[in-house]
Structures are given as C-alpha cells and as structure tokens.
Amino acid sequence: MIIDLFPTSIYMDSFELSQEDHTNLSQVKLSRNRDQCAWVSSHIHLLDWYQSIEVKVRKHVEQYVYNDIGLSRGYNMQCHGAWLNRNDKGDYTEIHHHSNSLISGVYYLSVNDQQGRIQFYDDKDGLFGRYFTVLNYTEPNNRNSHRANVECKNGTIVLFPSRLKHSVAPNLLEEPRFSLAFDYTLEGIFDAMVNKVNYVPVK
Questions:
Q1: DSSP assignment letter at 194
Q2: Rounded CA gap, 50 and 27, in Å?
Q3: Quick one: CA dihedral 93, 49, 161, 119, positive or negative?
C-alpha cells in the first residue's frame, strides 16, 4: 500500500470571457518587466470593468479553495492583484513564486503549445531532496518528479498555491502569447491556540 503524504494540488478548468471582457483587456497598457523578458500591465483588479471578469475567476477560486482543498468558508477570499501578460517571440518568465498571497492563478487568453508552457517546481526538490534530483527512474510520475509542466489552451484557468515556484518557457512563435494572472489572499481570523490574528488585506 502507498500513502501519498502532503500532496500539492493544481486546479484546472475552462470558461469563456465575453467579447466586452476581451475588448477591455485589449486596451490595457503594457510595459517591459524589470527583467526585460516579457510585457506586463500594472494591477487592474480595482478597475470597474474588471469586476465582470473577477466574478468568473472567483467562482473557480472558491471551488478550488473551499470544495477541493476544504478550507473553512469562515475565510473570505480577496483578490488583491491582477495583471495582463504578453510574451513576444523569445519572451519567457523566470522561476518565481508569489509573496503575500494564498492562491495564484492564470487564465489563458491566446496561447498554443509552442508559446511556452507553465512549469512548476517541487519545493522539496524531488522525493529524495536536491542532491538526488538526477536519479533515473523507469517511468516518471508524480511521486518521483521534481518539476512538471502543464499544457494550456485558450480559455483554460490554472490555480495553485502561491508559494509554489513556477516559470514560463520561451515563446517560440512570432505571434504573441497573452494571459491574465491574479493573486488571492484571505480575510478572516487566524486562531492558532495561543495567538489570534484578524487579517484584513489592503486593496
């Protein structure tokens, strides 16, 4: 018998945005990020028109957090960041994680499999730790891998714990790759026997 302890669960589903949503997103101003490896916008989650998108995203965030993971509904999920990404040919995203968040995610607006998959990295560096990541296995699987990539299509949403390190492979095509990224934290009381904290995120 095998018992899988402490798994990291990634959520995937799909939904459609309205034409108005797409039009609003197409008008968002972008600039090169600080690493000069992709185009990003400033935060758009507080803009009035974004709220119709946020309602759609929130439905999946709540499914993931409350129903799949089992977090108490005593905590309210709060979007505290959303931004648009564009990767031109050769653009990519370095390995990183999202600080000060509980759940992060991405929604694919225009992408195909040659434009850069999202890749996730095990924070334990594999089953046996960082010094044994080069071991050979008869067949790679979720128990012996220390990184995994996810193939995504237009309309796909991917959600994951914000502490999980991830990157985006280079776009190999001439056409730009567009995605919407977002962060969610929670609002509520952290009660850990001795200390109690009422956490209210700042928008």
A1: T
A2: 12
A3: negative
Higher-confidence position of 193 and 142? 142
Domain presence at residue 180: yes
Residue 1 falls inside a structural domain: no
How, if at all, do strands 11-14 and 165-168 pair?
A: unpaired
CATH code for position 157: 2.60.120.620
Cα(157)–Cα(13) distance, integer angstroms:
5
- Alpha-carbon gap, residue 89 to 141, rounded angstroms: 31
- Condensed to tens digits (0 to 9), the pLDDT of residues 147-157 reads 899 888 999 99
Q: Which helix (H) or strand (E) holds 156?
A: strand 156-161
- What pTM did the predictor assign? 0.90
Q: Rounded to 5 degrees, what are φ and ψ at 135?
A: -65, 150
Q: What is the DSSP string of 18-58?
A: -HHHHHHHHT---EE-TTSSSEE----TTSGGGHHHHHHHH
Tens of pLDDT, residue by residue over 102-123, are 999 999 999 988 888 999 998 8
Predicted local distance difference test score (pLDDT) of residue 202: 63
- Number of separate domains in the chain: 1
Tokens, residue 153? 């299509």
Instruction: Say whether pLDDT at 90 is over 90.
Output: yes
For the ranges 25-39, 130-144, 168-182, 183-197, which has the lowest average pLDDT? 183-197
Domain residues for the domain of 29 are 11-117+149-199
How many Cβ atoms from other residues are within 10 Å of residue 123's Cβ? 12
The verdict on residue 128 lying in a domain is no
Question: Is the residue at 138 inside a domain?
Answer: no
Which pair of structure tokens corresponds to residue 19?
């034409």
